[in-house]
Predict the 3D structure of the following.
Amino acid sequence: MSLLNFRQDGPPDLAERSAETAVTRLYEAHALDLVRLALVMVGDRPTAEDVVQDSFLGLYRRWGRLKDPDKALTYLRSSVLNNCRSVLRRRGRRLPGVQDPPVASAESRVLDREQGREVLDALRRLPHKQRETLVLRFVLDLSEEETAQVMRVSRVTVRSNTSRGRTALERMLGETP
Amino acid sequence: MNVERLLKDAAAAETRDVTRESLPPLNLPVGARRRRPAGRWTVPVAAVLTVVTVLAVTVVLRGVLRGPETLGAHEGPPFFLATHRKGGVGVFDSWTGRLIDDIPARTGHYAALALSGDRRTAFLAAETAPCRTRIDKVTLRRDGTVATRTALPGRYNAQVDEMAATADGGRVAIVFYDPGDCGDFDDLTVVEASSGTSRGWRLPPQTAESMDYVQSPAWAADGRSLFLATNAPETPRPERDGFLLRRLDTGTTDTTLFHAPVVLHSVPDLSSFRPSPDGRTIAAIQQNTDDLGRFGSISIMKVTLSDRPESERSSFPELARMTERQIAPAAPVDFRATLDATGRHLLVSSRHDRAVFRMDDGRFRRLPDLRRSDLGLIAW
């Protein structure tokens, strides 16, 4: 089972709460998963945390325009992906390594992490649409419909990007279909 | 181990140290929230809805009265190109599936391909290293065998997403993407095949709110105008946003993609655009899947470009349809589909079942001898 557990219940009933309270509760409920999402996308933790903070700040500023508070989580996921993309566009250099392995890491854990970095390096070379689709579908375990909502595209596009992204990753990683 | 599992494990390893306790607190600037006056959008939204309703009724009535046009007999393209797992591109007989010729990658692997309308010129994008792309021009004989292969002058410090060749193979449009570390590059480049000279266009600067993209380039018959799909403006109903089809005049000096006029706002997701010679209609593919993403059918749609492109279109006349029943027993997953230059011939590759299907003027066929399971991108 994945260590990432992004599938959680939707946000609590927030309609009657103030923006500050509502957004703070959303942060408490979902910040962990969103930082992990951002970390997978951008590759370093400080940036990932900044991205998530910016997304929550954006939600806070737009709270009055949010017609359906139940869509707040969808908005946040979408915003995090957008902010990650902006960060990646601004970078004119190779992605840095994520974090050093823990001092007490076992050899197997280091090997796992190195292998994982190879996979994520390949993931980060995909077109952003494919990269985001694969992360939402296979890392966050979102459904095709949920992924379509976050990315504001149709399910057909999600399916197309999934197929193309999977093919490209297989090729880069030397996997057999 | 499959890709899904690899990604899950890699993400888990990468985020192992991110715990709830280690997260910083949320910092909200109290009083910084902006408010929008209530009712500000009521009048414009009502006006737009009125226009959309009138035009939608008009379009539906016209479609009912005219009905779908009948496709005539056609031989169809004799061969198609497909990337394969060794990194090269194969030329395959599109009736038997036989490998006609192989174009191995000299360095790296081919990541995108485009075929001219006359099927005598192919452009292959070779990804030689991260953020390093070379474009090879391949001339093909009438039987599909390779005559020459040359590299276009220049290298591109980005990675290619899609390409489109003009009918005569004189120009190629290249859509680039940003894998995150390529630095500065154009989102779209048009290259003259004879000289290697190029021009670039860009999307507007990205913001936190924007989801801008460009995809599915397709040349008009004049070899100067380029159709391309971009994102539609966000609305409260994202599932209805669809995309905007723009017509870019590549002869102008403008370098901003979003300045290209919109010729269609489509709600359905279409791809593989094939403009008619007069540029008034476009054939395109619409893939229909169920809620689980399983193949239902692939249709060839006829899109008539509107004089009022700001009104969204929800449906189009269907010219032909390939159904799940026809491709059975192939598993309804992992397909690639493309139209030929005329828009009358559909090629569908099932990577899962080593099968390729074609539809010519509405007639379904299954290629008999294709036993490869490693076909990737296809061009017809």
